[in-house]
Amino acid sequence: MKIITWNINGYRAITGQNPSIRYNKISQKNKLFDFIYKENPDIICLQETKASIEQINEELRQPENYLAYYHSCSKKKGYSGVVSFTKVKPNKVNFNLGIEMFDTEGRLVELHFDDFILLNIYFPKGYTDNERLDYKLEFYDAIYKHIDKLAAINKNIIISGDYNTAHFPIDLARPEENENTSGFLKVEREKLDELVKKGFIDCFRLFTKENGNYTWWSQRGRSRENNIGWRIDYHFCTISLKNRLIYCNLMPEIPGSDHCPVVLEFK
What we know:
By secondary structure, this protein is of the alpha+beta class. 21% of the residues lie in helices and 27% in strands. It has one domain: Deoxyribonuclease I, Chain A (4-Layer Sandwich). The longest helix is centred in the middle third of the chain and has 21 residues.
């Protein structure tokens, strides 16, 4: 089973529906579908789609041979949103936590299969204002309560997506400079500690211990070229799946977004 997570920073841009511009070069190439057809994942979880399905040209709504499950922000156009494409039909699909202030922002697609449950999540940014930071922390708490309930259904759970938090100093290029920056605040990092205490493991760190591995780079300057980044996109899985993991790796060479894909394979 091969699962990829990727914050694409705009579905219509990465598929070529809207022209994308980088360093004054205009592109309408469908970078997303090209990537999917090359990598051939069983499931791909995308975050920050910034579009509802009605805003996407019909021929671009899903790659061939995949089922599509969209959850878009209903209160603000062009904001947030997730979609999961899967070759394997799930037994059950859920989009909601049952909390309106979270559900209306389109941050969850939950797929139930025979052997595991996969959550595609776009965790909120905290920014610097207290209101959105509180919102982010409350969202983490709501997710954790939800997965406690899911654990009674299936012990094998994978949480893939953009967590918007770097866990340890090794997970960003300049930790000392960002101690007071949302995304690396102590209170945010402690939320990932809580996930580990719940019996989840960071799949990437099971295979790679070195620093210099990031999934997001600022679009200012030449942060990506100089690898001044943050690792904020993860696959976390329950420890029950640990011995079945084959590998988990980052793909910083893939263009199309300010984030890069993260690929996970397990038996």
